[in-house]
Amino acid sequence: MTKIFALDPSKRNTGWAFYGAGDVKPHHGVWDRIASEYSSRGSIFYNTYKAMLDAHSVFGFEQVFAEEPINLLPGTVATQAENIWTAIGMGASIELFCHTMSVRLTWVHQARWRREFLGRMPRGTKSPDLKQMALQRCHQLGLKPQRHDDAEALGILTYACLREQVFMPWMAQLPVAGAV
After folding, report:
1. Which residue has the higher pLDDT, 18 or 172?
2. 3-class SS at 175?
3. Regarding predicted confidence, which is higher, 179 or 140?
4. pLDDT recorded at residue 180
5. What is the mean pLDDT of the chain?
6. Using a CB cutoff of 8 Å and minimum separation of 24, what contacts does 118-121 make?
7. Residue 123 Ramachandran class (φ > 0 left, ψ -120 to 50 alpha, else beta)
8. Chain-centre distance of CA 151, in angstroms?
9. SS3 of residue 2 by DSSP
């Protein structure tokens, strides 16, 4: 039985979604506040690892699909050094968890899962619009995410299941992506 866990990692609110073959709908939610603005990097990385460990004890997943940390190529992102450290450290915590627990990890670029889940998007679509589109797409599929964080995790999960050829019941009548 395939058990897939999807993550949209973020220091403030990490969206997650899980699907195990045989489930009618995915489980999903948000890990609020992996950290606050006062947290040390070490506590952020530890909390990420601990949240993964807790989720694994509940769901027993075999695979993790996670959105890649921010693109750090020169000239591609304007962000503070602290945000870069945090993104890399959270990614390393996810990598460490998967290595330790013998769980297969696949990093997914946000453009790739969004293209599969949302369909073609006009060039230059802003992040708030993409987050809203993910929420709308989930509602279109009969899923009820709390916020954009778990809506995006559901998008990553849908991409993962399509890639792994895992049937999800809510995809049986999957409307054409981008018809949001």
Report:
1. 18
2. coil
3. 140
4. 32
5. 87
6. 118/155, 118/177, 118/178, 118/180, 119/176, 119/177, 119/178, 119/179, 119/180, 120/178, 121/178
7. beta
8. 9
9. coil
